[in-house]
Design goal:
Layout (H helix, E strand, L loop, with lengths): L5 H12 L7 H13 L2 E5 L7 H6 L3 E6 L2 H13 L5 E4 L11 E6 L10 H13 L1 E11 L4 H7 L3 E8 L2 E13 L4 E9 L5 E10 L3 H10 L4 E5 L13 E6 L3
Parallel strand pairs: 1-2, 1-4, 2-3, 4-5
Antiparallel strand pairs: 5-11, 6-7, 7-8, 8-9, 10-11
InterPro entries: Methyltransf_25 (IPR041698), SAM-dependent_MTases_sf (IPR029063)
GO molecular function: methyltransferase activity
Organism: Haloferax profundi
């Protein structure tokens, strides 16, 4: 398996993570799916609890795993502030095991894309499906590669103002291809304080995956069936639609 620097990034960025602007459509989608299932749910890549804590608030029997201990520490702190008691632990989606499979396993916020090699992708899918009950579902999402977005945005810098503990900071975002043949993207974030001094500077890597490529991966791991939609539950019709996969384990 190929290791990357994403764990260092998420450990270093944990306290900043919640201050950044985050999408919300996926939160309501995954909470609704979990409530509809009415059983045990595992979130893989639970981070600081953006979705996991909402699952608990909705009365869902939810557990969570994440590779970054720093993110889990922040999740527990966030949970304690709201009087919640999460059951989360540190684990790698490529190698984790569970003794009792879940009715629903979710991998939100494109976390699957941190698997950089075919071996990593297959190992992760096998672990995820093994953690899913025979009559359960694995649900995950990631973006459809967008050539126009790449041309217009890769190699450029974007700056976002954030407030952390009442102090003002700036976050610089930058992304570009590290390996455009393999589709490996390197992202970088730098946090500056009000004096323009660097507080945190970390990078991460993602492997862009096309719809057809992912379908081939699912065939290789023996998934019995799958459906891909957008967050509205409709078939995706453009690269602006997030690809949301609902996957049944092998029978």
């Amino acid at each position: 398996m190929e290791s990357d620097d994403s764990t260092d990034y998420y450990d270093a960025w944990a306290q900043v993570y919640d201050a950044e602007t985050m999408p919300t459509q996926d939160v309501s989608y995954y909470v609704d799916r979990a409530v509809d299932v009415g059983g045990r749910v595992l979130e893989v890549g639970c981070g600081t609890g953006r979705i996991d804590l909402e699952l608990l608030r909705a009365g869902v029997d939810a557990d969570g795993i994440d590779l970054a201990a720093g993110m889990l520490d922040q999740l527990r702190e966030n949970a304690a502030a709201d009087g919640l008691d999460p059951n989360v632990w540190q684990a790698d989606m490529r190698t984790f095991t569970v003794s009792d499979p879940y009715d629903l396993v979710i991998v939100p916020f494109r976390a699957f894309l941190h698997n950089l090699t075919i071996e990593d992708q297959l190992a992760a899918l096998r672990s995820l499906l093994d953690a899913t009950a025979d009559d359960g579902e694995l649900v995950l999402n990631f973006y459809a590669p967008d050539c126009e977005f790449v041309v217009e945005n890769y190699g450029t810098e974007e700056v976002e103002a954030v407030a952390i503990d009442g102090e003002q900071y700036r976050v610089l975002h930058r992304a570009d291809f590290e390996d455009d043949v393999e589709g490996i993207v390197r992202g970088e974030k730098v946090l500056f304080d009000e004096n323009d001094d660097v507080v945190v500077s970390e990078s991460y890597r993602l492997k862009s995956v096309t719809k057809r490529e992912f379908e081939l991966l699912l065939r290789l791991v023996g998934a019995s069936s799958w459906e891909v939609t957008n967050f509205d539950g409709d078939p995706p019709t453009s690269v602006e639609d997030e690809l949301v996969w609902s996957i049944r384990p092998s029978s």
